[in-house]
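Today's session is about reading a structure prediction critically. Students often jump straight to the picture, but the first step is always the sequence itself: look for stretches that repeat, for charged clusters, for runs of hydrophobic residues. Only then move on to the predicted structure, which in these notes is written as discrete structure tokens rather than atom positions. Here is the chain we will use throughout the hour.
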Amino acid sequence: MSREDEQKFQRNRQKIELAPGEQIEGRNPLQEALRAGRKVRQLYILNRANKVSQSDPLAKLAKQSEAGGASVFYVDRAALDSIAISNAHQGVIAIVEEYGYADLDAVLRAEEAAGTSPFLILLDNLQDAHNLGAILRIADGAGVSAVLIPKHRSVSLNAVVAKTSAGAIEYVPVCQETNLTQTVLRLKEAGFWIYGTSDAAKDKYYDVDWKGKVALIIGSEGRGIGEKLLKHCDFQITIPQRGEINSLNASVACGIITFEAMRQRGL
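Below is the predicted structure for this chain, in token form.
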């Protein structure tokens, strides 16, 4: 970056005062936020959106946001780059009302009222926002009841998660639990079968029964599921592989297992 560009970057950063709330970036995440009824407080959008036809995607997003009460600011790309968190804002950055975490008991009551068996995904100290976003996308596509994450030592809902989820963040209940081990014990008392992924497991993921009340635990990048949590699993499962590198990305592993489970459950 040249000195002139750096100075422009800093001027843009200083000019922008972001409202409190969650930052989301990209056209699809904003469109899904609007569709889900999330309140948009501020919209920073590429200045060409103020000069093109109202049928242009950027112009439509600006119009929708403004109609919902958002303050809309038309800015240049340097200004957007200066406040972006992800690397793909697509000319759109919005500040929306904070994401509310779901209540697990309320999720389970809703499943009981509907006469359906819950399928939960628990994430043990997942650190990568891209993985969480991808898992939310998987959860939405598979009809998962809720995704549970720990309150501490875990990635939380943010702009990168929202962008990677392609809007699924608006539709999948995410529960933030203080202690996953205690949550697992509570689920077991409620009749859940607990499945955990482990490279050392003997059972293949497609050989076990996924019907009924089920919770699938996916471990963190690198170390997998913690020993304390793993010992409470009713089944330890593995994805057989032929390659030299016996490791899958957490979201990929989650997707493979989740859609097999949903196939057995009649998705």
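Discussion point for the tutorial: The chain is about 35% helix and 20% strand.
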